[in-house]
Amino acid sequence: MSNTTTGYTGTAKALHWTIVALLIVQFIAAWTMPDIKRHTKPDTLINLHISVGVLILFVAVLRLTWRAGHPEPPPEDGLPPWQVQSARAVHWLLYALLFVLPVLGWLNASWRGFPVIMFGLELPKLLATRAPGGGWTGDVHALLATYGLLTLVGLHVAAALYHYFIRRDGVLQRMLPGR
């Protein structure tokens, strides 16, 4: 099963929409969990946030592995080169953040002494608790998620809607389930 000239495989679509659903859960958990301060102990929402973050990393690895063997379909006919290049740049930046953000979160959890548990399986620490120089990871994680990831997701969604409502081409339909 490989991508066609009209769309992505069912596997590519399933991985894409799984990441979308996980990101929605992740941001809801992040916005509703308590502020993490020096003496904060992990609670249910913090543990959920950590677990979902590791799961996002796992699914992103699967997605990128799948994509390596199943390149994206060729661009729609008539798209200006700047749109094709912009779309590729946004996609690769999204992939980068889907790897960097969970790793930063894992580093920060390790630094804080929080166990990193993915739905019952405890994962190794990436950093010693309170290791010198590790305190920045949480701030960078939050900044990249809030300003980097949300901006790129917004651009991605705006571009998809632009193609659907303004250009009326098949760009969005190529990734919709059941198409």
Characterization of this structure:
It is a single chain. A hairpin with a 2-residue loop joins strand 1 and strand 2. Strands 1-2 form a two-stranded antiparallel ribbon. Helix 3 packs antiparallel against helix 4. The mean pLDDT is 94. The longest helix has 32 residues. Helix content is 63%, strand content 3%. The chain is mostly helical and 179 residues long.
The H-and-E topology, N to C, reads as HHHEEH
Arrangement of strands in the largest sheet: 1-2
Strand content: under 5%
Largest sheet: 2 strands, antiparallel
Helix content: 55-70%
- What's the count of strands? 2
Mind sketching the topology for me?
Blueprint: H1 10-32, H2 44-69, H3 81-112, E1 116-118, E2 121-123, H4 136-167
Helix pairs in contact: 1-2, 2-3, 3-4
Key phrases:
179 residues; 4 helices; 2 strands; mainly alpha; 3% strand
Outline:
With 179 residues, the chain is mainly α. It has helices at 10-32, 44-69, 81-112, 136-167; strands spanning 116-118, 121-123.
